[in-house]
Amino acid sequence: MYNFLEHLSQRAFTQLCGHLELTVFEDKEVIFTRFSEGRGMYMPGPGHYQEEVDLDCINLTLTDFEFWAEISLFTSFQHTCTMVSVQFNDTFLLPATALAKAIQEFAECCGYVYQYARSLQAKLNTEEFVAEEVLPSSIRTACCEATDAYQLKNLTKERLLQFFYLPKPYPSGADTKDLIRKVLSGDVTSGEEILQELE
């Protein structure tokens, strides 16, 4: 979503970046806990992390930034695991209300994000995916491609109109005056004759 948002409006994307909150987590510091309410989308930077669910621990090594709990930007979401920083790590947080604030002046971005969120919610409701920390990339891509903005920016030959017809132009002012004169003088009397004149 965010790559296309930058493509759609660099100004809106810049404002969005201005709303990011940087937090530096120390060794073994908890980023968020399981079942806690999502505060927004986390973007952990490259580093080592630990995902804990019950007694299971999974060590994660990130080489680039990732999006965690993106769904909490659009709906109420409880974290499905506890995330711990194994070393000093930089993590950005985009609060849930910040996305709306950042794009509120950009109508094309508002429409795009709204349609993205609606598509995401529809897929969640039909159980195409389970709400977890990281959304499947196929779901994110499908939601992005379902928006009008994406489709307009990525027109293919199949989507282009081949033929279209323009309706006849309305009669000019002179034509209308001429028809009124004919009706008043009695030259054109029936509704059928009037329709023929209008055609």
Structure in words:
The chain is α+β, with helices and mostly antiparallel strands. It has 2 domains: 2-157, Jelly Rolls (Sandwich); 170-199. It has 8 helices and 7 strands. The chain has helices at 2-8, 10-18, 98-103, 107-125, 137-145, 148-153, 173-185, 191-198; strands spanning 21-25, 29-32, 40-44, 47-53, 56-62, 82-85, 89-95. Strands 2-6-4-5 form a 4-stranded antiparallel sheet, with no helix packed on it. A 3-stranded antiparallel sheet has the order 1-7-3, with helices on one face. A hairpin with a 2-residue loop joins β4 and β5. α1 crosses α2 (10-18) and α4 packs across α5. The radius of gyration is 28 Å and the shape is elongated. The two termini are 50 Å apart. The mean pLDDT is 88. This is Cnga3 protein. InterPro entries: cNMP-bd_dom_sf, RmlC-like_jellyroll.
Key terms:
alpha+beta; 8 helices; 199 residues; three-stranded antiparallel β-sheet; 2 domains; four-stranded antiparallel β-sheet; Jelly Rolls; single chain
Rounded to an integer in angstroms, the radius of gyration calculated over CA atoms is 28 Å
The total of helices stands at: 8
Mean pLDDT across residues: 88
Overall morphology: elongated
- How many domains? The number is 2
The CATH top-level class label of the largest domain: Mainly Beta
State the gist of this model.
The protein is an alpha+beta fold and 199 residues long. The protein has 8 helices and 7 strands; from the N terminus they run ααβββββββαααααα.
